[in-house]
RNA sequence: GGGCCCGUAGCUCAGCGGCAGAGCAUCUGACUUUUAAUCAGAGGGUCGAUGGUUCGAUCCCAUCCGGGCUCACCA
């Protein structure tokens, strides 16, 4: 049996959630085939609302859907595609707080996002602008997807057939949705939202007539009875119907969504069945919470953004976070980054420790790297790097690597590129979290004398790299100047030179940092270059 | 009110049929001249409660109790 065959065999019984999901899709494809359809491909969809920018949830949804897609490909020879669908014909409901030209946007309320000028002035419309941001975001991670614009689909006629099917089932669809609405909305509800030929606004108005033969609807617009074809982009579907219509038109086999959309999924599923189609397989994932258990929302600015995560941890770590337990509410805040990075490292090692295909398929790193986890090793953990960087005052790559070699002599940036990247993240952590807490103080006269002598001795050492030799002299100078207890001498070194009450073993630091360089550092402190500085 | 998730060591969580685990925190020791780091070790749990299934339940099922989120306007 080839390794491919054994992978396929193992995939059929694998328990990792992407396989559980993929089996649902396999079963759906089999049902389609049994019904006489020729199943040439299977379609995965992720949705995007372009009234906002892509965020960590967008990343999670596309990443997770991709894992299901890859799992499916291990079980089935059927081709797959991932559609990233932008609901850009949706009306602009309110002016977002974080864009230029808000007063201009205010004049376009209610218009389709693709009919609103781009407040940034870089694209044909606000919708197009945000679509571009979405694509750049997805491309940044190398996702394989096919972008689809709702506006394009409507206007090009791609949705026409499905729109006529909705019209054909107008009453049924309406009656499915009506009971779920409040009294007020019920009065004006229509599965179709016409776009006013006069104002360009997506209208939420009662539909007076629907003509199945003509393929049109009639409604009142600015006091005049108006008739429009449901096809060709003149009319948009109300969103839950829109979702169902889209599933039908595109033939979507799988789509996941957040748990806030559970009732929408149920409704869209019913509508799809009413339209005579089989709804896709779905999964509800949990929303993310901040460290206090509150839902993350961009307006509140709580939790972590993708950019924030990627400032302190690599792509693999955020991917791992998304992989783990999609159905459990997870707290997403700074402290989870180091833990997730180290979990990733541990899983990578576990992966390499086994040849067993079945075992490997259960490992998140298999999915994160689409079946090809890297071969590299991480001789020290990220947690250790973070502690090291703050305890050792290692503020550049070479110095930090020097300390790393004290723990893992064989480690180096060339053979451990992943670790070298972690070094970069650790240094950024130092800059952002350690450095701001530093409080340098001026040395006392007694300390000045001792420091001056230490600088002179270090100059004599020159290129000395023996940490113990240096440490011995540091100790001798402390004794000679009558520090009692001696720890006060070391404490003074840290407070004056590093702005911290604690630090690395001083001899080790000087040996790595360079004795001459350390002497320079001391002289700068003696010249009061640091004191008082934060 | 409907739905969903979670109650496991002081904290954050993993485990999800076969002798209760990790990280952090705590304590002890080592690195024979500071501290931090590092290393070795220790303590610490009726696995929310009650029933059921099973030779066996933290795990599966039912009920209950707690905590939280979400939908009930729009997408």
**Rounded mean pLDDT score:** 88
CATH class of the largest domain: Alpha Beta
Which value, in Å, is the CA radius of gyration? 31 Å
The CATH superfamily name of the largest domain is HUPs
- Please tell me the total number of domains: 3
- Provide the β-strand percentage band: 5-15%
- Estimated helix fraction: 40-55%
Largest β sheet strand count, sense and barrel closure: 5 strands, parallel
Class by SSE composition? alpha/beta
Q: Low-confidence parts, pLDDT < 50 over ≥5 residues?
A: none
Shape: elongated
Q: Report, as a whole number of angstroms, the end-to-end distance.
A: 65 Å
Annotation field: number of helices? 24
Q: Could you give the count of β-strands?
A: 12
CATH topology of the largest domain: Rossmann fold
- Order of strands in the sheet with the most strands? 3-2-1-9-10
Q: What is the architecture of the largest domain at the second tier of CATH?
A: 3-Layer(aba) Sandwich
């Amino acid at each position: 049996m080839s390794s491919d065959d054994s992978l396929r065999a193992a995939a059929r019984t694998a328990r990792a959630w992407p396989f559980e999901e993929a089996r649902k899709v396999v079963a759906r494809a089999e049902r389609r085939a049994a019904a006489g359809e020729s199943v040439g491909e299977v379609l995965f969809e992720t949705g995007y609302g372009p009234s906002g920018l892509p965020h960590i949830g967008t990343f999670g949804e596309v990443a997770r859907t991709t894992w299901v897609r890859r799992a499916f490909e291990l079980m089935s020879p059927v081709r797959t595609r991932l559609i990233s669908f932008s609901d850009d014909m949706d009306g602009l409901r309110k002016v977002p707080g974080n864009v230029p030209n808000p007063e201009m946007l205010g004049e376009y309320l209610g218009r389709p996002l693709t009919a609103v000028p781009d407040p940034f002035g870089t694209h044909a419309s606000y919708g197009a602008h945000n679509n571009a941001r979405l694509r750049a975001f997805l491309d940044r991670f190398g996702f394989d997807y096919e972008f689809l614009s709702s506006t394009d689909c409507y206007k090009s006629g791609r949705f026409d057939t499905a729109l006529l099917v909705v019209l054909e089932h107008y009453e049924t669809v309406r009656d499915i949705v009506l009971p779920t609405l409040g009294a007020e909305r019920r009065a004006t509800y229509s599965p179709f939202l016409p776009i006013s030929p006069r104002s360009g606004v997506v209208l939420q108005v009662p539909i007076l007539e629907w003509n199945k033969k003509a393929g049109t609807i009639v409604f009142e617009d600015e006091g005049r009875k108006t008739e429009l074809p449901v096809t060709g982009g003149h009319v948009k579907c109300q969103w839950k119907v829109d979702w169902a219509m889209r599933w039908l038109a595109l033939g979507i086999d799988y789509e996941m969504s957040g748990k806030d959309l559970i009732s929408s999924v149920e409704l869209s599923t019913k509508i799809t069945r009413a339209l005579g189609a089989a709804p896709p397989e779905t999964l509800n994932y949990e929303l993310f919470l901040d460290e206090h258990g509150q839902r993350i929302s961009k307006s509140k600015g709580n939790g972590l953004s993708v950019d924030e995560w990627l400032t302190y941890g690599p792509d693999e770590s955020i991917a791992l976070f998304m992989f783990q337990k999609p159905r459990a509410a997870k707290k997403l805040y700074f402290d989870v980054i180091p833990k997730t990075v180290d979990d990733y490292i541990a899983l990578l090692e576990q992966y390499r420790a086994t040849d067993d295909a079945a075992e490997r398929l259960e490992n998140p790193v298999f999915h994160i790297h689409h079946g090809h986890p890297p071969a590299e090793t991480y001789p020290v953990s990220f947690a250790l790097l973070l502690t090291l960087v703050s305890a050792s005052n290692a503020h550049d790559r070479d110095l930090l690597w020097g300390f790393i070699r004290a723990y893992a002599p064989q480690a180096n940036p060339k053979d451990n590129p992943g670790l070298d990247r972690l070094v970069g993240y650790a240094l950024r952590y130092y800059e952002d979290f350690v450095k701001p807490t530093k409080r340098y103080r001026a040395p006392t006269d007694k300390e000045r004398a001792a420091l001056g002598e230490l600088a002179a001795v270090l100059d004599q050492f020159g290129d000395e790299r023996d940490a113990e030799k240096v440490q011995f002299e540091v100790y001798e100078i402390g004794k000679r100047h009558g520090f009692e207890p001696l720890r006060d001498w070391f404490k003074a070194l840290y407070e004056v030179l590093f702005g911290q009450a604690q630090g690395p073993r001083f001899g080790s630091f000087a040996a790595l940092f360079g004795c001459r360089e350390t002497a320079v550092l001391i002289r700068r402190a003696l010249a009061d270059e640091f004191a008082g500085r934060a």
